[in-house]
Amino acid sequence: MSEVTMDKLVNLCKNRGFIYPGSEIYGGLANTWDYGPIGVEFKNNVKRAWWKRFVQESDNSFGVDAAILMNPRVWEASGHVSSFSDPKMDCKECKTRHRADNLIEDYVKKHKLDVDVDAMSQDEMYKFICDNQIKCPVCGKCNFTEIRNFNLMFKTNRGVVEDAENIVYLRPETAQGEFVNFLNVQRTARAKVPFGIAQIGKAFRNEITPGNFTFRTIEFEQMEHQWFCKDGTDMAYYEEYKNKAMQFYNDLGFSKDVLRFKDHEKLAHYAKCACDVEYLFPFGWGEINGVHNRTNYDLSRHQEYSGKSMMYLDPVTNEKYIPYVIEYSVGADRLALALLANAYHEETLDNGETRVVLKFHPFIAPYKVAVLPLQKQLNEKAKQLYKMLNKHFMCSYDEAGSIGKRYRRQDEIGTPFCVTVDFESLDDNTVTIRDRDTMEQIRLNIDELVDYISKRVQFN
Ligand code: GAP
Questions:
Q1: What is the 3-state secondary structure (H, E, C) of 321-337?
Q2: Does pLDDT of 162 surpass 80?
Q3: 177 in ligand 1 pocket by Cβ < 6 Å?
Q4: Distance of CA 330 from the midpoint of ligand 1 (Å)
Q5: What are the C-alpha distances in Å from 385 to residues 247, 363, 371, 441, 447?
Q6: Whole-number pLDDT of residue 437
């Protein structure tokens, strides 16, 4: 079995309709990607699996879908206007902009040095770059400006006049939509602390570093869950959410050796403690989610900036307090990329051919089943079957090329079941159903298919 590389994934995604470069016919726009017909099904299934686990199956969690554009005071209160920045420096020679921490990380990796960039101050980073004569990756010179903080939020203007009064931000995290609705949800859902608010939606960051495909983009989707709890119970819930995150990934098919926790050394402005779950991507370890103890920072700040009380009144003890928050935040695109890398396999068949197969958990596979007629004369029967099955599942229908080629096409997009219609089907209403991973085939009556497939594509 040969190794998965980013090039292989990017090519497969582009050729099979998972992911295309954004605005490709105009030469693209750096760090943007478009999901194609197969990709949109796949990513929707990733989001469905997360929502099922963290909202549907949670006793006390509720969903919201908040506006992307929020009152700009939200971002002052949250600290993003003052603190959501990266340490950037410009190359004076070729005028390109770089993240100082990334320049050091690359240098440290190349020279196998034991240096913790996260623990460095800006002065220490600048000194390290000068002392080691770290070069601009574009022009190869070492002549940088000093490090400046570069805010990652995209700004736009609302209305007809472009002035500071009209600035609105594209949200850099979905979390604030959950915090500003804390009281609304608590009241309307009659929720008692501890309870959760979840949201899936777009977030935007003005990232300048090249992204490793969809790993780091300027527009991405987050799946965020805020668990509101009482001060003192927060650390136990922090551990609980770390475990829940890990369990979710194991259930999706990641083995333990490709995932790890990484504690944050440098904490975000809102966090008391935080860690990431990292996946071993083809380019190395990379974060797929964060678990953060945000204390009562966000609700307290919104109370201060909005003038509205964010106090929760405990109906049993009559205590009034601002709840603490444990946040579990995962990028849908990053998780999807990790799932793609994890699913990618190349296998040598008995006849010496190589098959590329995406061994997704069936729940997240773009199509659940493909219907393949063996001969032209069987197309009508196969189409009837396709029409019956697509009322229940996303299905593919393929009558072009040899059966072997058609199996390969479905393997490459991870379809867990292929149903073949043959002449026997006309006589006794049976078909063969082929399992993607074992390639074994069994014969079933068409009436049994929906039940058989439904049971095998569940995610629990
Ligand atoms: N609300 C907390 C928060 O936003 P974060 O660690 O900055 O925390 C959470 O982001 C998750 O969002 C990350 O673990 C990652 O999966 C995803 N993410 C962040 N920046 C991203 C980017 N530029 N491109 C793709 N995904 C990103």
A1: ECCEEEEEEEEHHHHHH
A2: no
A3: no
A4: 6
A5: 37, 21, 8, 18, 10
A6: 97
DSSP line for 85-136:
EEEEEEBTTT--EEEHHHHHHHHHHHTT----GGG--HHHHHHHHHHTTPPP
Cα gap 321→298, rounded to integer Å: 14
- Ligand 1 in contact with 329 (CB < 6 A)? yes
Work out the angle at residue 36's Cα, subtended by the Cα atoms of residues 33 and 42, and round it to the nearest 5 degrees.
100
Is residue 193 a contact partner of residue 13, using CB atoms and an 8 Å limit?
no
Greatest CA separation for the chain: 80
CA distance 237 to 230: 10
Q: What is the residue with the minimal CA distance to atom 19 of ligand 1?
A: 331
174 Cβ below 6 A of ligand 1: no
Using one digit for the tens of pLDDT, what is the confidence trace for 283-313? 999 999 999 999 999 999 999 999 999 999 9
- The pTM of the full predicted model, rounded to 2 decimals, is 0.93
Q: What number does the ligand 1 atom closest to the CA of 217 have?
A: 24
How many angstroms does the Cα of residue 293 sit away from the middle of ligand 1?
A: 15
| Main-chain phi, psi angles of 270, to 5 degrees | -100, -5
Q: Say yes or no: CB of residue 289 within 6 Å of ligand 1.
A: yes
Identify which of 260, 225, 226, 266 has the alpha carbon closest to the alpha carbon of residue 246: 260
235 closest CA partner among 267, 261, 196, 274: 274
Is the link from the previous residue into 210 a cis peptide, with omega within 30 of 0? no
Residue 409 beta carbon below 6 angstroms from any ligand 1 atom: no
**Rounded Cα distance, 117 and 119, in Å:** 5
CB 276 within 8 A of CB 326: no
Residue 217 Cβ contacting ligand 1 at under 6 Å: yes
- What's the CA gap between 84 and 81, in Å, rounded? 6
Domains and CATH numbers, the chain: 6-70+158-340 (3.30.930.10), 85-151 (3.30.40.230), 367-456 (3.40.50.800)
Strands 97-99 and 85-90: antiparallel
* CA of residue 259 to ligand 1 center, whole Å: 17
